[in-house]
Design brief:
Length: 175
């Protein structure tokens, strides 16, 4: 499988093609992640990883459109990012976006009623949240990850007390 590691930093995913804007990174290709298109042909990759990258880009929608262009239909896009209630979301001055577990709904098959933001569509394969240790030990992480209704309740009413840490998304680009 051919994998693109976007914003690979110094710890590029083994066997992947890494891109980053930092010359000190382990990237195979140096490019500005806010300039499109990236220097690859359409559908060049079976998978794409963006681990703690999406919160740094200038335009989340345009970046997701570029991910869609690069990954073949049936491939996988994996994104990890801090939940907006985590300390790390706001302590890094390079973070431009502060996201929650519903932030990518505009790219879903029903586009959450906002289809005019983008024409690209992804099928959500999984969303997994990691909570701060205390809340994980008390069982909240299990509830948030195994019951969609509880996740919605948590995002609306509890997340500022029972704080999130990291979100892991997996998507499949739709044709």
């Amino acid at each position: 499988m051919r994998i693109l590691d976007v914003g690979c930093g110094v710890k590029k995913y083994a066997g992947s093609v890494g891109i980053d804007r930092n010359l000190a990174s382990a990237a195979d290709v140096i490019c500005d992640l806010d300039c499109f298109p990236y220097p690859f042909a359409d559908h060049s990759f079976d998978g794409l990883r963006a681990i703690h990258v999406i919160e740094h880009v200038q335009d989340v929608i345009r970046t997701m459109e570029e991910f869609h262009r690069l990954v073949r239909p049936g491939g996988r896009v994996r994104i990890e990012t801090p939940h907006y209630t985590d300390f790390s979301s706001f302590c890094d001055p390079t973070h431009r976006s502060h996201l929650n577990s519903y932030s990518f709904r505009y790219f879903g098959e029903d586009h959450a009623g906002f289809g005019y933001y983008s024409n690209v569509r992804f099928r959500e394969i999984s969303v997994r949240l990691k909570l701060l240790n205390l809340w994980r030990w008390l069982g909240f992480e299990f509830l948030v990850n195994h019951f969609r209704g509880f996740r919605k309740f948590w995002e609306h009413y509890l997340c500022f007390v029972v704080r999130g840490k990291v979100m892991e998304f997996e998507f499949e680009p739709l044709p």
